[in-house]
Design brief:
heterodimer; A: Peroxisomal Thiolase, Chain A, domain 1; B: alpha/beta; Rossmann fold; seven-stranded parallel beta sheet; 13 strands
Chain lengths: 428, 451
């Protein structure tokens, strides 16, 4: 271990309710949503005009004009304009990675406080022009005479005018993420019913959490939305059983439906991290500390590993470093990209052969007490605006731990596109 | 929210037309602006019945930078310098005969009153009189003041302050309030003072400096205005509203440099959550403004239980529960705390279709009066304000006729603004208002309803 450093405190968080694609936030940009989310955080913790050490956030789907998205959002917010900011992007791991980066700078004493966030919109996704049209437009721009310009314009064909629409697909395989997850689900023999059960529980847990006021200091309404509009409190296994599979449909036994997979979602989240001293001086609470974090990546292209299995690899590395077992946690937050992902992750940790062969462990990590898993609902209920999910989970888990009392420990596991995984430990 | 009629009658052609037609001519009221003098002109102070407060009044006025004229000069001519205010010290009245002096002093002085001028009458509380004649004379002050309020023109107001023996030190804050632009829409009211330990006054521009204030229902309307004024006066505001209103709540909090707390005050654990939040984040609270309120109007015979219960829960039970939790906690309510509850004119006069609302708002008055002695024991106060017709988004939705009538049937011929309610609350919250306890102050422009 390196020289001991201080641990960053999680003071609290804020997010806007998540909205299914092309619904409540259809007209909102990433910058609109991130700015509103920062302002809600500022209002909650009285940070008006405050210059925090750094704001780190990002978006997975980002317009080229948003090259400085986070800084622009800070400038539009109530934070001091002297607050530095930068963008990051690690697919669905963006939000958690942002929190880790801010926490690390706090731990090293480089900053006293910072905000980690993330935002995504699939309603206002960036459209790009094709390579043919781009070349034509460049030569049009370079043309010096009217004749040259007309010549360039004449090269445009109707087919070139159709923009390239971003797809939720892996560039290296061409498969949708859901189709990748379906491969893993089949490999691990994850049944339809257990996926539906997990999805229903997520909705019920989150609805109950809203009803008891758990989200009162985690969510600020936005554009008329007061709760996540993907949330279905009356969801039931019977209802879900009627849905047709949407991923891995080449297989007659396909199990993954629109209900046990997260929908495309718009939203933003932010987490306030600080040193204990900074929080104390401001009279702000310390909900939990970010104890450690780990990333991992798998070769899903040629290596025979599932696209979303990287967290399975990251967790044992982090556990070993901290002298912990998988059972040493009071809460588990495993991001529900798909119900099958959560189930495959847990199954892998229980599997002796896999743990020995793939993870190089003498014994399997073992099983998780399901009553400690995603207790206030997760992405299947809230929805999953890619970069915003990490912030949602960090703030939500920190509050859970704080409610449970001091000395409680929570594990976060988030899978990300590109075969990556980001995991972390929080402790109250 | 602009009052088109007031704007019209104060325009060039509007003045001519409204004068010729004999229409009511509401004035543009003088409202408080930080940095402006307390009054736009000098004050003349007169006495009737002896007047033991003359020196106190003069000292308060001089401290506030106001020129004090003697009544002799005021009597001398009626076309002298225009007055910003007229103060009559009628303490020491022994019988109705002493009131003649009041008439002699007031009549010429009021002639010289400027627009948005002030008449303040000081008297002993009738309830503490030693003889029926004394009580009669003291009570007569009430009728006198209210009638002056109705006779005054151009946005001027008349109010009475009842000062018992020994409560002289409590006078500065209420006297200053009634003279200032903060009381623009408070007219025809009487406030009874009590003896109290009044702290030395601080910065008059920031009377609430260093205080922590909670304002419920702060996301919009009157609540947002209260939050703004309390913050302007120097307090850190914890703005509370239901989670569903969190968007506008955050905007209010950010505008005033306060903090937003999303909380449904009717939730069973709300009082505890509020107490914990105040202790953890602010080490306690100095000012609590119970403003959150809802209406669910229906005639009583048509009213369902849900309408009745929700109004009672928000408007009355939550105020009781939160105040009780603050008192029970021991130290979260800081020494010298101020609680101000928003009641309503409907709670005094009753209102058709508002049995639930009027009952809840009358209940607030009962609560405040019952708790006042207990608050006095801890050097704290609890008071209510009862707004009359206040121009808000809610009243903008009323039918034109009802709205126009509702806003004109008062001595100032206009509706009040949210800021008028807010100013009154911020005044009651001042450390200097220690001697104002268990009072109900109407902010209604001397409405004819329930007067």
């Amino acid at each position: 271990m390196a020289t001991p450093t201080r641990k960053a405190a999680i003071v609290g968080g804020n997010r806007i309710p998540f909205a299914r694609s092309n619904t409540a936030y259809a007209q909102a940009s990433n910058q609109d949503m991130l700015t509103a989310t920062l302002d809600g955080l500022v209002a909650r913790f009285g940070l008006q005009g405050e210059s925090v050490g750094e704001v780190v956030a990002g978006a997975v789907l980002k317009h080229a004009r948003d090259f400085n998205l986070t800084r622009e959002s800070v400038l539009g917010s109530q934070l001091s304009p002297t607050t530095p900011a930068y963008d990051i992007q690690q697919a669905c791991g963006t939000g958690l990675e942002a929190a880790i980066l801010v926490a690390n700078k706090i731990a090293l004493g480089q900053i006293e406080a910072g905000i980690a966030g993330g935002v995504d919109t699939t309603s206002d996704a960036p459209l790009a022009v094709g390579d043919d049209l781009r070349r034509t437009l460049i030569s049009l721009n370079n043309a010096k005479t009217v004749a040259d310009r007309l010549k360039a314009l004449a090269r445009i064909r109707p087919g070139q005018l159709v923009p390239e629409i971003p797809r939720n697909a892996e560039p290296r395989t061409g498969l949708a993420m859901g189709d990748h997850a379906a491969i893993t689900a089949k490999e691990w023999q994850i049944g339809r019913e257990e996926q539906d059960e997990l999805a229903v529980l997520s909705h019920q847990n989150m609805a109950a959490a809203y009803d008891r006021g758990f989200f009162d200091d985690l969510v600020t309404p936005y554009l008329g939305l007061t709760r996540d509009n993907n949330l279905r409190p009356d969801s039931s296994v019977e209802k879900l059983a009627t849905l047709k599979p949407v991923f891995g449909t080449g297989d007659p036994d396909a199990t993954m439906t629109a209900a046990n997979s997260t929908p495309l979602t718009d939203g933003a989240s932010a987490v306030l991290l600080a040193s204990d001293e900074w929080a104390e001086a401001k009279g702000l609470p310390v909900l939990a500390h970010l104890v450690d974090a780990q990333t991992a990546a798998v070769d899903y292209v040629h290596g025979g590993e599932g696209l979303l299995m990287a967290p399975v690899y990251a967790v044992p590395v982090m556990l070993a470093r901290n002298g912990l077992t998988l059972q040493d946690f009071d809460f588990y937050e495993i991001h529900e990209a798909f119900a099958s992902t959560v189930l495959a992750t847990m199954k892998a940790w229980e599997d002796p052969a896999y743990c020995k062969g793939k993870l190089g462990l003498d014994a399997p990590l073992g099983s998780i007490d399901r009553s400690k898993l995603n207790v206030n609902g997760s992405s299947l209920a809230a929805g999953h605006p890619f970069a915003a999910t990490g912030g949602r989970i960090v703030a939500q888990l920190a509050k859970q731990l704080h409610e449970a009392g001091p000395g409680k420990r929570g594990l976060i596991s988030i899978c990300a596109a590109g075969g990556q995984g980001v995991v972390a430990i929080l402790e109250s | 929210m602009s009052d088109w009629y007031t704007n019209f009658v104060n325009s060039g052609v509007g003045t001519t037309i409204s004068k010729q037609l004999g229409l009511p001519r509401p004035a543009v009221l003088r409202r408080y602006e930080p940095g402006e003098p307390l009054l736009p002109g000098p004050v003349v102070v007169g006495t009737a019945g002896g007047g033991r407060l003359r020196d106190t009044v003069t000292a308060v006025l001089r401290d506030a930078g106001v020129t004090v004229l003697s009544p002799v000069a005021a009597d001398g001519s009626t076309d002298g310098e225009k007055l910003g205010a007229v103060v009559l010290d009628a303490t020491g009245l022994s019988g109705p005969g002493d009131l003649a002096a009041a008439h002699d002093f007031l009549a010429p002085a009021i002639r010289r009153l400027r627009a948005s001028g002030r008449v303040v009458v000081l008297a002993d509380p009738p309830a503490q009189a030693e003889t029926p004649a004394q009580a009669a004379a003291r009570q007569a002050v009430d009728g006198l003041t209210r009638s002056i309020g109705k006779e005054l023109l151009n946005g001027s107001t008349a109010n009475a302050i009842y000062v018992p023996e020994g409560a002289e030190a409590s006078l500065a804050s209420p006297l200053t309030f009634f003279l200032s632009g903060r009381s623009a829409y408070v007219d025809g009211q009487g406030v009874t003072l009590a003896a109290a330990d009044v702290p030395a006054s601080g910065d008059p521009e920031k009377p609430l400096a260093g205080k922590v204030a909670v304002v419920t229902g702060a996301a919009r309307g009157i609540g947002a205005s209260i939050a703004q004024v309390v913050a302007r006066d120097g307090a850190h505001v914890v703005a509370v509203d239901i989670p569903a209103a969190g968007d506008s709540l955050a905007k209010v909090a950010n505008e005033i440099g306060g903090t937003a707390l999303q909380l449904d005050i009717t939730a069973p654990d709300a009082p505890q959550r509020l107490v914990e939040h105040l202790r953890e984040r602010h080490g306690g609270v100095d000012i609590v403004v119970h403003n959150a309120g809802i209406t669910r109007d229906k005639l009583l015979v048509n009213m369902d239980a849900a309408r009745w219960n929700s109004v009672m829960a928000v408007n009355l039970q939550a105020q009781l529960d939160i105040t009780q939790a603050l008192l029970d906690d021991g130290d979260v309510l800081k020494p010298g705390a101020r609680v101000v509850s928003v009641s309503s004119q409907s709670g005094i006069a009753g209102n058709r279709g508002q049995t639930n609302y009027a009952a809840s708002k009358a209940g607030v008055i009962g609560m405040v009066r019952a708790w006042a002695p207990r608050f006095a024991e801890r050097g704290a106060t609890i008071n209510a304000v009862a707004p009359g017709f206040i121009v808000t988004e809610m009243t903008a939705k009323m039918p034109f006729g009802r709205r126009e009538i509702g806003s004109r049937i008062n001595s100032l011929s206009q509706g009040g603004l949210p800021v008028d309610v807010a100013e009154t609350i911020a005044w009651l919250a001042q450390p200097g208002s220690a001697g104002v306890n268990g009072q109900v102050v109407r902010v209604c422009g001397q409405s004819m309803l329930g007067a």
